């Protein structure tokens, strides 16, 4: 027999299928047991409806199966998508859009992930922006990274201050820092401080400036006698050049 709401006067024995429970004002009710009603996650104050996720933090917004389901005190988070920000507990000011975006984040803050499994492995990393499927997929504690494009900075784990734009840009970087790459399949290994421009361009040492993918890679940045000046020995499509930066 289906459960039903049954009202009786004081002292009357209630039938076994009577529905019981308590609730909180402005919380949409749900069945918490076969015959029991309690609070759901959705707030309805008469003028707006919002799902705050777990923790009942009113500044959070969660839409999708198990989005923000582990949250305790984290605030100012927005999770949209199946299991987005799934493990977040106290992390705050994060935005996750897409299936399992920022899935593993626990205490990381100020991250933005847009795309399926973008920033999936991030736990405590902060100030990262990932846009594209699997962008910054394996980042855990790295910070100040920006990845735009399918699998951009996919294998980054602890590297920080990297910027990658393009299909699989800086794909193999894991711990390198302060690299900038623009173009499809740009590569830096785990070197630091390189600027890599153009499809398939690859850096092979720290502080390189690489343009294009033809011939020898650019030379390392060197210090010259002129105060506050630097010279870059570069190779642009196989042609050696020197660039003096004042």
Please describe what this structure looks like:
With 246 residues, this protein is mostly beta strands. The protein has a domain at 1-51. The protein contains no helices and 17 strands. It has strands at residues 20-21, 27-33, 36-44, 49-51, 61-63, 78-80, 95-97, 112-114, 129-131, 146-148, 163-165, 180-182, 195-197, 209-211, 221-223, 230-236, 239-245. The strands form 2 sheets. Strands 5, 6, 7, 8, 9, 10, 11, 12, 13, 14, 15, 16 and 17 form a 13-stranded mixed β-sheet that branches. Strands 1, 2, 3 and 4 form a 4-stranded mixed β-sheet that branches. It starts with 19 loop residues before the first strand and ends with a strand. 39% of the residues are buried. Residues 215-229 have low confidence and may be disordered.
